[in-house]
Amino acid sequence: MTVGTILEPFCGGSIVSSDAIVTAAHCLYDYKVGKWLPAETVYVFKSDNFTEPNWLKGSKWFSCSRYISHESYRPKETDGFVPFDIAVIKLDRAIETG
């Protein structure tokens, strides 16, 4: 799974249920403007082959209906360990697996 905006996929994620993805909280924070990304701009992409140059073309897209980051996560603009860097994305529909 890949998490990102419609124009820029940028983080990985793991399926935790048919309609939920776990990812890093920093993937949902826009450091350029200092705000959380609006849920309606977040998408999850499922592809069978991330090694192909045009992997997005054959991927399935899922919209984010909402997301929750860990309440103790604090965005940080420096490199290094950041505690509680976890979030769960609720999808607009179920992912077919198997």
Q: If you had to describe this structure to a student in words, what would you say it looks like?
A:
By secondary structure, the protein is mostly beta strands. Helix content is 0%, strand content 39%. The chain is built from no helices and nine strands. Strand 3 (14-17) and strand 4 form a beta hairpin. The protein starts with a strand and ends in a 7-residue tail after the last strand. The model has no long low-confidence stretch (mean pLDDT 83).
Topology at a glance:
Layout: E1 2-4, E2 9-12, E3 14-17, E4 20-23, E5 29-30, E6 35-36, E7 43-46, E8 60-69, E9 87-91
Antiparallel strand pairs: 1-2, 1-7, 3-4, 4-9, 5-6, 7-8, 8-9
Largest sheet: 7 strands, antiparallel
Query: Tell me, what's the shape?
Result: globular
Helix and strand succession? EEEEEEEEE
What is the mean predicted local confidence, pLDDT? 83
User: What Rg, in angstroms, do the CA atoms define?
Assistant: 13 Å
Structural class, by secondary structure, is: mainly beta
Q: Report how far apart the termini are.
A: 14 Å
**Unreliable stretches:** none
Question: What fraction strand?
Answer: 35-45%
In DSSP terms (H or I, runs of 4 or more residues), the helix count works out at 0
Main sheet strand line-up = 2-1-7-8-9-4-3
Fraction in helix:
under 10%
SS elements, strand count: 9
